[in-house]
Amino acid sequence: MRVVIVGCGRLGARIASKLDSASHEVVIIDTNPRAFRRLAPGYRGDTIIGTGIDEDVLRQAGIERADAFIAVTEGDNRNIFAAQVARVTFAVPRVSARIYDPVRADTYRNLGLEVICPTVAIADDVLASFETEA
Fold first, then answer.
1. Domain boundaries, the chain
2. Residue 33 class from Cβ within 10 Å (0-12 exposed, 13-18 middle, 19+ buried)?
3. What backbone phi and psi angles, to 5 degrees, belong to 70?
């Protein structure tokens, strides 16, 4: 499976490294070349310096052949926009975006975007831990 990831922070680097070690074809994009230091030492995938909302950068990453696209930068707006470009412009079959704001996450989920909202997920985990103690 070919996966294009935008954002090489802790989460993006971990996802890229895990997918790479599982023998997937991975390309990760970040505006900061130092971010790629977060990748696992044996990472064999490609790295591209640029922004994930730039269609030329996405083409350089081979998005036309991508099976999946994951947007995990620190910005909700950037992730939403990048995910929409991947889905609408390039028709990537599977597109996911991290969105911190629960209201925005619900809105974009209702529009058909696959959304991961860590705010909701962590809140649910914390609340579940209280329920198991009672």
1. 2-133
2. exposed
3. -130, 125
pLDDT per position as a tens digit, 78-134: 999 999 999 999 999 999 999 999 999 999 888 888 999 999 889 999 999 888 765
Domain 2-133 has CATH 3.40.50.1970: no
| CB within 8 Å of 33: residues ≥ 6 apart | 49
Q: What percent of the residues of the chain are helix, what percent strand, and what percent coil, each to the nearest 5?
A: 50, 20, 30
| Sequential DSSP letters for 23-47 | T-EEEEEES-GGGGGGS-TT--SEE
Query: Tell me: the pLDDT tens digits for 75-84?
Result: 999 999 999 9
A 10 A CB-CB count for 36 gives 16
Dist CA 5 CA 12 (whole Å): 7
